[in-house]
Amino acid sequence: MANITKTSGAYLTNWAWFRDIIGDKDMVLCHTSALECLELFVGYMNEKEIDVYAKKQGQYDNINYRILNNFNDIDVINIDGVLCTSFNQTVNDMLKDFENTDEQALAEALSNYYHNNGRSFSGLTINTENMSNFNYMKDWAVEYYNEGARVYDFTRTSHVSNYRGL
After folding, report:
1. Helices (DSSP H) in the chain: which residue ranges?
2. Which long-range contacts (CB under 8 A, 24 or more apart) does 64-71 make?
3. Domain count within the chain
4. What is the pLDDT of residue 165?
5. Nearest 5°: phi and psi at 152?
6. Which residues share a beta bridge with 84?
7. Could you tell me which residue, 148 or 54, shows the higher pLDDT?
8. What's the order of all strands across the beta sheet hosting 50-54?
9. In the chain, count of helices (H) and strands (E)?
10. Domain around 112
11. Residue 160 forms part of a structural domain
12. What is residue 80's DSSP assignment?
């Protein structure tokens, strides 16, 4: 089967793009794509890549498949039928793979979490091996909106459920 590409520009929203490409498939959004799914990062216009954990390589050229034997060791949630890593999982994964991380997306997400959590990172569990990278990002995240940008209020929890069935 020939590989194909579908980009976000063909959809009304990135959410519609994720649902079409990922929904009901054996894949879990991760990294920057998970931050978008969790609505802690607004994403980019005409996005071309999706980051996923998968059990096998798929058909799309523009999906960054991170192959795992199973999803047992990652914290996964289900948002309207789309599987996504939890915020704690996503942050730790991005901090662990820091040299390949979209720092802008991570800073925005951490800032949104911080400001929507009473100006606190409490509730966020950072793995010991990621603490140095977290400390590097923390100050940037705290100051991220001091330039007058809007802090987003994400309260999309009514349709989020923990998912451990994979």
Report:
1. 14-22, 31-37, 87-96, 103-116, 131-143
2. 64/31, 65/27, 66/30, 70/166, 71/28, 71/166
3. 1
4. 37
5. -85, 140
6. 29, 77
7. 54
8. 63-67, 50-54, 27-29, 82-85, 76-79, 160-163
9. 5, 6
10. 8-144
11. no
12. T
Q: What are phi and psi of 70, to 5 degrees?
A: -155, 175
To the nearest 10 degrees (0 to 180), the angle between helices 103-116 and 131-143 is: 70
Q: Exposed, middle or buried: residue 1 (CB in 10 Å: 0-12, 13-18, 19+)?
A: exposed
Amino acid at position 154, single letter: F
Contact between 17 and 62 under an 8 Å Cβ cutoff? The reply is no
Domain membership flag for residue 153: no
pLDDT tens digits along 21-52: 887 788 999 999 999 999 999 877 667 889 99
CA 15 to chain CA centroid, Å, is 12
Residue 89 lies in a domain: yes
166 lies in a domain? Answer: no
Angle at 29 between CA 85 and CA 24, to 5 degrees: 110
State pTM to two decimals: 0.82
Say what the alpha-carbon torsion angle 127, 129, 135, 136 is, to the nearest 10 degrees: -130
Among residues 25, 38, 5, the alpha carbon closest in space to that of 15 is found at 38
Q: Tell me if 30 sits within 8 A of 85, measured CB to CB.
A: yes
Helix (H) or strand (E) holding 84: strand 82-85
